[in-house]
Amino acid sequence: RSVFNLMKLCDENNIIYDLNESPTYTNAGTYMVYYQVTKTGYKTVAGSKKVVIIPSSPVITASDSKTSGDWHNTNFTLSFSGTGYPSGIYYYYGTTENPSTRGSSVAISSETSGTTYYVNACTSDNNCSDVSNYNVKLDKTAPTINSPFSSNGLTKIMLSTNEIKEVYINNVAVNINVNDDRSGISTSKIDS
């Protein structure tokens, strides 16, 4: 078994490293590492190796701070971000698992009971992260309420006699229909 001496290790900027250190890359991207190996009596071997650091999956954040799968009731924006991303990272989003629209955000304004947006981050040479997703639910339409009440309280009951001083009503049944076709009703309550 022979021992070879590693004479040079350098990066694409020709920064030379010795055996005690080596190039360190922390940001996503493609880098070239150049090497030279020598041993007395042997031919010197030199070469390079491409090192690809793929971006981590992007973080998807809603402008109203709600999380994936929560109901939104107004228009909002999904924004995409990540850590360790240099300026050469691009985001692609869409409603399929292979997003193709380039951008760092998308405005959501169409009502939906559940549309999944997929997002990935890619380097300039198309090395892409795993896909992140966000389940969009948007319901801007208020529920409908049908009741025997006016907007100011109970409907007035007119009595046409002067002899009645007080009226007591027992066991009144009040039927209220509350409906929301998209996101549903979380609670409905009648106070007396």
Question: What this model shows, in words?
Answer:
- This protein is mainly β.
- The protein has strands spanning 5-11, 16-17, 29-38, 45-53, 59-62, 71-72, 76-81, 90-94, 101-102, 105-108, 112-122, 132-138, 144-146, 149-150, 153-154, 177-179.
- It has a five-stranded mixed beta sheet with strand order 6-12-11-8-9, with no helix packed on it. Strands 2-1-3-4 form a four-stranded antiparallel beta sheet, with no helix packed on it.
- A hairpin with a 2-residue loop joins strand 14 (149-150) and strand 15.
- It starts with a strand and ends in a 13-residue tail after the last strand.
The gist of it:
This protein is an all-beta fold and 192 residues long.
Q: Which key features would you list for this structure?
A:
192 residues; rod-shaped; 0% helix; single chain; mainly beta; 4-stranded antiparallel beta sheet
Counting H and I runs of at least 4 residues, what is the number of helices?
A: 0
Measured as a percent range, the helix fraction is under 10%
**Record field, number of beta strands:** 16
Structural class of the secondary elements? mainly beta
Beta-strand residue fraction? 35-45%
Intertermini distance: 93 Å
Radius of gyration: 33 Å
**Low-confidence runs of at least 5 consecutive residues:** 149-161
Order of strands in the sheet with the most strands? Answer: 6-12-11-8-9
Q: What's the rounded overall pLDDT mean?
A: 77
Shape: rod-shaped
Major pleated sheet: 5 strands, mixed
What sequence of helices (H) and strands (E) makes up the elements?
EEEEEEEEEEEEEEEE
